[in-house]
Amino acid sequence: GAGVSQTPSNKVTEKGKYVELRCDPISGHTALYWYRQSLGQGPEFLIYFQGTGAADDSGLPNDRFFAVRPEGSVSTLKIQRTERGDSAVYLCASSLGWGEGYTFGSGTRLTVV
Amino acid sequence: QKEVEQNSGPLSVPEGAIASLNCTYSDRGSQSFFWYRQYSGKSPELIMFIYSNGDKEDGRFTAQLNKASQYVSLLIRDSQPSDSATYLCAVNIFSGNTPLVFGKGTRLSVIA
To answer: Is the pLDDT of residue B94 over 70?
Structure first.
C-alpha cells in the first residue's frame, strides 16, 4: 500500500479483555516494528520483525503481549488480560531493512477502562 | 544501557529565527541518527538522517553529528509557526539487530 495502515484507529476495552491490533506495512518493506507511546514520552520499542520471524522481542513488557507476522506482511499485536497501564498509542512502522528510516502508521489509541 | 537524551522544552523561538534542537546518546557504538517530527495527535514523520560526522543540509533543516562528543543536533532556519511540533531524536546501532531508540522529544513552539 501507499503507507503503513493500522487498525483500529481507536480501541476502548475493559480491563481483563483481550485485544488485537493490526498493522499493514508498506508493500516490499521487510522490516516491521511495534512501538508504544505514552503522553509526553518518546516511542518505546516493543518488537521487531525481519520477514516472518521476530528478530527482537526484548521490548515486550511481559507475557501478556505477543505479536505475529505469519506471511511476512501484515502483523498483529495481541494483548491478553489488558490492564489500565496498557493504555497508550501503539505505533507500527516499517522499513526496507534494518538501519533504514522508518515510516510510521497513524497508530492505534488503546484505552483500557 | 542505551539512552537518548533530549531537553523536553518547550523551546520557544520567534518566527524567522533559527531553532536549535539537541540530542545526546550514551552508546558510543551508535552509527545512524534520525530526526522525526511529531505534530500533536499524529504519528512521527522522518525529517532527516545522518551517518557521518559533520553537517547535512536539506532545505531549511541541517543535521549536525559529532560522534566524539556523542551529540547530534537539528537546526531549523527561518522557523515558521508550522514547524511547531515535537522533535524526536532516534539512534540506531549497527553492531546488532537493535531497533531505533527514541528520545522523549523536544517540544518546539514558533511564535508568529
So the answer is: no
